[in-house]
Amino acid sequence: MTASLASLPASSSATPSSVTAQAHALLQALGVPLDQVQAEGGWPVRSPLTGELLGQVALQPASAVTAVVDQAQRAFLAWREVPAPRRGELVRLLGEELRAAKTQLGQLVTLEVGKSPSEGEGEVQEMIDICDFAVGLSRQLHGLTLATERAQHRMMETWHPLGVCGVISAFNFPVAVWSWNAALALVCGDPVVWKPSEKTPLTALATHAIAQRALARFGDAPEGLLSLLIGERDTGADLVDDPRVALVSATGSTAMGRAVAPKLAARFARALLELGGNNAAIVAPSADLDLALRGIAFAAMGTAGQRCTTLRRLFVHESIYDTLVPRLVRAYASVGVGDPREPGNLVGPLIDEAAWQAMQQALDAARAAGGTVHGGERVLTAAGAAACYARPALVEMPTHTGPVLHETFAPILYVLRYQTLDEAIALNNAVGAGLSSSIFTLNLREAERFVSATGSDCGIANVNIGPSGAEIGGAFGGEKETGGGREAGSDSWKAYMRRATNTINYSTELPLAQGVKFDLDA
Ligand code: NAD
């Protein structure tokens, strides 16, 4: 049922709801004492499902950052000496604890962020997967042995632990992003200090409690190896400024990256930036349209358009536009929007009122630019105005301008016609962000061109799959305004270690490189 905002009932009463009670039961089951979420006058945490208050958490003062990094730095000095496979044992235990907690933590993700139960559990599965990956990695951290120009010399690379790793995470993957970083950082020999989103402290507290159980079972990990800083962006800023934090892995908006990156550059610290996306897909004349429709629908509407990899721009070849787009419009009109815990609802809530306002502003701008908007209205649920449910919007745009050029973190899909593949690739690349992209085609030449050097300029380029829903085995991240960082699989681990090139002379001579002569008459 849809309604205008003005006609919505006021926020429901403050009596503990089933949502609040369920969140408290989950927190207790996961090992979080309730007094941590019942701080008088603390930071309020609301469920986007109903708008109800889930708890109030105490924010740590800025001074806490120094103390926490002090301890993390001491932990680093000890942890870097623990053999990597033994470090992997801690991550193996973390994976076991996450398996045991999967259902409950997934449910808490649903309550705090509004993801569907399947996506909530899927997020925890991603944490388990990266743990498995990192355990294997702990026996494979390797360097090269290289040919040297000097006789009886050996040249090699060695990889060493880097130092304290600061993790700043976004609300929309409230726990998985921590695990992508933490699992790799731990096996690489680095302690982790985590500043989660101020919108998702409950799942962070629960994850921290789960990690504490793994640490207890491990036995002799140094104090402060994994720490949590609950705070606002100023806490994140203090973490960024601390000279002992060797690497800051920051996930969030491009605006956040613009604030963080220069500070890290100024102190020559390492930055791993995972920022906003403005992802596109191309549907070519030969595409399997049934498959494309399903891929587009999940990528554009899933997680209520609140994934960094959400599909936001769709380029449809003019020969199939009038076949595909009306089908998409019908899918947008009929998709179930509402509490995602109820069967049939595939699109859950926006995170908060600000997200709803941003969505409406973008739709107004699209209309002003000549766009035809399908959907985008407020959807009324039993929660009334306290929760922000919006029907996903499909916007047919005459030109690639205005709001199309920027990420609005809401379910809006801008659709445009194209004539040639060159034109579609140029449009794909014509935005600041460079995270994810797709082409739907059965034409081998088109598919190969799209993933080639003259194709998509994004960190992720897919064929016959939408742009969202990456596996942890690959390196994850994007180019340009997405920040250039890579997390998770492949060789992403190298960001968490420092490389040393070693040359060892086992001869009785001292030949210099490049044949340089420097003979002292001593
Ligand atoms: P956000 O930028 O508002 O906040 C992200 C985190 O950064 C929060 O923990 C916040 O407290 C912190 N922060 C903000 N300003 C800061 C500053 N100046 N110094 C230090 N810390 C600061 O983002 P959000 O609304 O939580 O998340 C949505 C955004 O994140 C979208 O743009 C989305 O595309 C992006 N995102 C990117 C990825 C990726 O891997 N590329 C993954 C998830 C989300």
From TrEMBL:
* SUPFAM superfamilies the UniProt entry points to: ALDH-like
**Does the keyword section mention Oxidoreductase?**
yes
What PROSITE patterns does the record tag this protein with?
Answer: ALDEHYDE_DEHYDR_GLU
Q: Which residues form the signal peptide?
A: none
**What Enzyme Commission number(s) appear in the record?**
1.2.1.3
| UniProt keyword list | NAD, Oxidoreductase
A Pfam family found in this protein is: Aldedh
Q: Which residues form the Aldehyde dehydrogenase domain?
A: 43-499
Show the active-site residues.
Answer: E274
Give the protein family: Belongs to the aldehyde dehydrogenase family.
Q: How does it assemble?
A: Homotetramer.
Which protein is depicted? aldehyde dehydrogenase (NAD(+))
